Amino acid sequence: MARRVLHHNSSNHHPNNVTSPLLSLSLALLCLLSAPAASAQLTRTHYAGVCPNVEGIVRGAVQKKIQQTFVTIPATIRLFFHDCFVQGCDASVMVASAGSNRAEKDHPDNLSLAGDGFDTVIKAKQAVDAVAGCRNKVSCADILALATRDVIALVINLIIMIHPFIH
Questions:
Q1: pLDDT, tens digit, for every residue of 25-81?
Q2: Alpha carbons 140 and 125: distance in angstroms, whole number
Q3: Residue 6: which pLDDT band, with cuts at 50, 70 and 90?
Q4: Which of 98, 141, 143, 150 has its CB 3.0 to 4.6 Å from that of 62, i.e. a possible disulfide?
Q5: Is 92 annotated in some ligand binding site?
Q6: Which one of 46, 82, 163, 167 is the catalytic residue?
Q7: 139-152 burial code (b ≥16 CB/10 A, e <16)
Q8: pLDDT of residue 94
């Protein structure tokens, strides 16, 4: 049986090396979130006439949740991944089972999702719905996408603050 030998490259562990798993994950998710839609005509101003401050409302709720627990960041990113991986980014992972109908949230692969990811979306949705003109106008799928974008942006900003030579 052939044995694979991995060579240690000490340059990979240099403190000035910015190629970290967290940075790679953040950049990959940022690209995923900013990629143009292939079939839908999505716009950045979709909610401009209905709930013009939705992004600020979600960002505020996300920042508040992050101040409560740092687990919000990985939990929200993982929740978004699990939601989008199965049947598209539709927030179906947020729906609880009812009766004999077993929801995506209760699938064995999703049982380990941290409650802080769900709580982030729920609190952001409550904050959005607290604004009269926004009530029941913004989908949970969009709120999950915005919240994920915001936690990734925060991680990138933290990395830049720690490693100012990145930009």
A1: 555 555 555 554 444 566 778 888 889 999 999 999 999 999 998 899 999 998 898
A2: 7
A3: very low
A4: 150
A5: yes
A6: 82
A7: ebbbbbbbbbbbbb
A8: 85
CATH number of this structure's domain 50-162: 1.10.520.10
Domain range annotation of the chain: 50-162
Amino acid identity of residue 59, one-letter, is: R
The structure tokens 């992004």 sit at 55
Q: Is 104 annotated as a binding residue?
A: yes
Q: What gap in Å lies between CA 96 and CA 133, rounded to an integer?
A: 27
Instruction: Evaluate whether 150 touches 24 at the Cβ level (below 8 Å).
Output: no
Positive or negative torsion for Cα 119, 158, 58, 40: negative
Tell me if residue 82 is catalytic. yes
This prediction has a pTM of 0.70
Q: Say what the pLDDT of residue 118 is.
A: 86
Question: What is the distance, to the nearest Å, from the Cα of residue 87 to the centroid of all Cα atoms in its chain?
Answer: 17
* Beta-bridge mates of residue 98: 101
Type of residue found at 144: L
Angle, alpha carbons 15-18-19 (nearest 5°): 115
